[in-house]
Fold:
Amino acid sequence: MTELKNDRFLKALLREPVDRTPIWMMRQAGRYLPEYRASRATAGSFMDLCMNADFACEVTMQPLERYPLDAAILFSDILTIPDAMDLGLYFETGEGPKFKKVVRTEADVEALPVVNTARDLSYVTKAVSTIRRELNGRVPLIGFSGSPWTLATYMVEGGSSKDFRHVKAMMYGQPEVMHQMLHKLALSVIDYLNGQIKAGAQAVQIFDTWGGVLSHSAYQEFSLKYMQQIVDGLIREHEGRRVPVILFTKGAGQWLESMANTGCDALGIDWTTDIGGARSRVGDKVALQGNMDPSVLYAKPERIREEVGNILASYGKGTGQIFNLGHGIHQFADPEHAKAFIEAVVELSPQYHK
Structure:
C-alpha cells in the first residue's frame, strides 16, 4: 500500500485538523480543458473514454498536472449503472445522455436486473485501480455514483428532462413500482461503490442531481431513504483507513439536517445555501463541501478571489470544510480562471486553520 503524500482532503472530511482548506472541483476532468478535448477526440467518443482504463486514467490525471488540487475523482459517468441494466446509453452532441429503452411500466421495472459490478462494470473498477496506481499516493482518489432517484429520472424519462413528467407520474401514480425500482438501484449502487472501494477509491460521493425537484415529503421518501440504504451498505473502512462518504443533493438546502442524520461523513452543498449557515445547522456532525457558483469563473480573477474569500469567511475557522464549486465546472470556463480559483483557496485558507 503506497503511503498517501497529501491526505488533507480525507482529514477534512473526518473533521481532523489540516494546514489549509482542501480543494477539488466537480467535473474537474472535462470539456473546459483543451487536453481533455484532445483525449476525447483520440478515444473516439465519451463512452470510449470511460470504458478504456488508460484513457480514463489519462483524463483523470490532467487537472492534477495543471492545478494544486487535493483529490482526484474517477473519470466516468453517473449513468453507467442504467447502461449495465441494458437500457442502451448513448450520447448525442449538444443533447446530453439518452437511452434506447425507457422504464415506464411495472413489467419494465420487474425486468431490470440488479447490477453485479464484477460482471457488468469491470471496466470501471479496472479504471479505479489503474488511476490509483498512477497516482502513487499523490492525492486520494474519489469514487462516485448517481443516487437511485437521479438514475431513475434518466431511466424513466429516457434522458434529461425539464418537467420530470414521466418519473413523477410513476412516483405519484404507482409509488410501489417506483419503490421497487429505487430498491434495485440502491442495491446496484451499493455493489458498485463497494467495488470501487475494493479497487482503490479512498472516498466516495453520491450525486443526487435531481433530488431538489422533489417536494419535502417526496424527497424523504423517494430520494433520501435510498441514499440512507446505500450509506448503511457501504464498506466504511479499507486499507486501514476510514472511507468517507459524501452526499450531494443539488437544491437540498432545506434538508441538510436530515441528510446529516444518515451517517454520512460530509454533505456537498450548492451555491444557493450559505455555507456558514449550513455549518451552524449541522454543527460538528458532518463536514461540508462547496459551494461557489460555477458561473463566478466567468468573472475576472480578482472577483473570483473575492468570492473565495467570502466563502472562507462565511465558514470561519476550523476544519471540516472542503472547497469546491456548488456544481460541476462549466464547459466554457477559462482554465486560467479555474487556476485563479484554486490558487485563491490555497493562498487564503491557511489563516483559518491556525
The chain has a mean pLDDT of 96.
